[in-house]
Amino acid sequence: MNWRRRLREWIKVIQFAHGKDVRIPWFGMLLAILSGPVPRAVWRARMRQGCYRCVLFRRDLHACSSIHPQFMGLGCSCYTPFLALWAEPYPGGCIAKFWKNEEVGWPAYRFPSIWARIWAPVGFLLGR
Fold it and tell me: How many domains does the structure of the chain reveal?
C-alpha cells in the first residue's frame, strides 16, 4: 500500500465531507491503528467483495458516500481503504451492516486469539 498517496486521499475525503478548514484527526488515526488492523487478505476481500460492489461507494473519492439518486446522502463519508482496515469500525462491521442490511457491506473481523489482537498493530506498523 502506498501510504503517502493513501494519506493524501484520506485528507481529501475528510475535507470533502467536513470542509477545507477542518482539523485533520491524526490522534483518531493513531487510535484506529492501535485498535487492531485486519490481515491483508481480509482487507482485500472487504474492498473487492464489499466496498467496490456497494451502492454507497463513491469511486472518485474512494469514500462511503453515495451519489446514486436513490441513496443520496447515505454512507458514513469515510475513506474506505482505511475504514476496511480496522476490525470493527462500526458495531457489526461497516456502516451498511450497522444499519442491518444483509445484502451489502462486510461484517466485523474477530481476531483468532487475544495475542493476534495485541500483535496486529505491531505487525501493521512494521509493514507485515
Answer: 1
